[in-house]
Write a structure and sequence with these properties.
The chain is mostly beta strands. It contains one helix and 32 strands. It has one domain: YVTN repeat-like/Quinoprotein amine dehydrogenase (Methylamine Dehydrogenase, Chain H, 7 Propeller). A hairpin with a 2-residue loop joins β17 and β18. The longest helix is centred in the N-terminal third of the chain and has 12 residues. It starts with a helix and ends with a strand.
Length: 377
């Protein structure tokens, strides 16, 4: 080979290698309604969908849509996107049947290479509402909010195989957010009364009662990129719609709550930035209450907190839509998406130096955006 040929061949190979995308997967609920603060079913709803959103350009755009069961039931971070963005896993949560909303147990694996399509549907428990996948991408947990337990699946070649069901000790546990630790050796599960901790073993999951992290009605949870922190959205509800975010240090045992900050009501979405320096939280701010309620506001709130040592420090906030759900960062952390069920839009913000810059919202034509996910690396 001529000495000058090597760089030329290398360049050609690089040019032929497909660039890794930067996408968000929005699961859109077309069957749920909210009228004067009362939840219900849309009459003769169209199919629920999943939107594939391209975050590599400004403004972001929808590049594909596929019909698949989705629901507003559960944490806004309920969607899982594979590290290589080749597939996603979406829980159905609930569906409309004969004019009413009923629990659903479907979990769908969606192919994202080429034209998006449903590869597989499996059954979890009633109210399947959040997905967690370990770092090796071979073990999947699905929390079942209505059944109050957790379904366990193995994952291989984009295919789910049922393994077992984790009993949380109470069918009314309201199982919600779920994440694995960074090393995959621990699973954290949000349930009524606190964060249940399970050690992952070769023969299954072992409950570690002593490691339980205190939390009041925990809902959405997220683990920081380094694995040091677990962020927990707590929801009191009731008059005033009081809410808070808890930061727990889970790098060593015993786990310790190290910071607590108030939020503008119940928080459906909560996400660490890709570099782990910030925590984004979207809160309902009374936007789901009846307009006649003293708690009602005509918008939700997106708040940005800096991780200052082991303390959450509020940096900025901005109004968003109503019935706000999940949050997603672009891969470089310079764009933030927040889902708005009521408006059927996704709020888009530029993000730099801890400051938010509002941009034109992204319209979702096929249902209310209810859950969102991006690849974690």
């Amino acid at each position: 080979m001529h000495p000058r040929a090597a760089p030329t061949i290398l360049l050609a190979l690089l040019l032929c290698t497909p660039a890794r995308a930067d996408i968000a997967i929005s699961a859109n609920d077309a069957h749920s309604s909210l009228v004067d603060g009362v939840a219900g079913a849309v009459k003769d709803p169209p199919p629920d969908t999943v939107s594939v959103i391209d975050l590599s350009q400004t403004p972001p755009r929808i590049k594909a849509t596929v019909e698949v069961g989705a629901s507003v039931l559960g944490p806004g971070q309920g969607v899982y996107v594979a590290k290589d963005e080749s597939f996603a896993i979406v829980p159905a949560g609930n569906r409309a049947e004969n004019g009413v909303v009923v629990p659903d147990n479907r979990v769908s694996v969606i192919e994202l290479v080429g034209a998006p399509r449903v590869l597989q549907q499996v059954s979890a428990g009633a109210g399947a509402n959040a997905i967690a996948v370990n770092g090796a991408e071979n073990l999947v947990l699905v929390t079942n909010r209505i059944d109050g337990n957790v379904s366990v699946f193995s994952l291989k070649d984009k295919h789910l195989t049922p393994l077992e069901t984790i009993d949380l000790g109470n069918p009314k546990s309201l199982a919600a957010g779920v994440v694995f630790s960074a090393d995959g050796k621990t699973a954290f599960i949000a349930r009524d009364g606190g964060i249940a901790v399970f050690n992952v073993r070769a023969d299954g999951f072992a409950y570690d009662a002593a490691a339980t992290i205190p939390a009041l009605r925990p809902y959405t949870i997220d683990v920081s990129p380094t694995g040091q922190f677990l962020a927990i959205a707590n929801a009191w509800g009731g008059p005033g719609n009081v809410g808070a975010v808890t930061l727990a240090d889970v790098s060593t045992q015993p786990y310790k709550v190290v910071s607590v900050v108030g939020t503008a009501g119940v928080s459906e979405g909560l996400r660490f930035s890709p570099d782990g320096k910030y925590l984004a939280v979207c809160s309902l701010n009374g936007s789901t209450a009846a307009p006649s309620s003293p708690d009602y506001h005509d918008h939700g709130v997106l708040a940005i907190f800096a991780i200052d040592g082991k303390t959450l420090h509020r940096l900025d906030e901005a109004p968003i839509g109503r019935w706000s759900q999940g949050i997603a960062f672009s891969r470089d952390g310079r764009a933030i998406l927040v889902q708005n069920m009521r408006e059927r839009t996704i709020s888009v913000f530029g993000f730099a130096d801890g400051k938010l810059t509002a941009q034109e919202p992204l319209a979702i034509p096929s249902g209310g955006p209810a859950m969102i996910g991006t690849a974690r690396r």
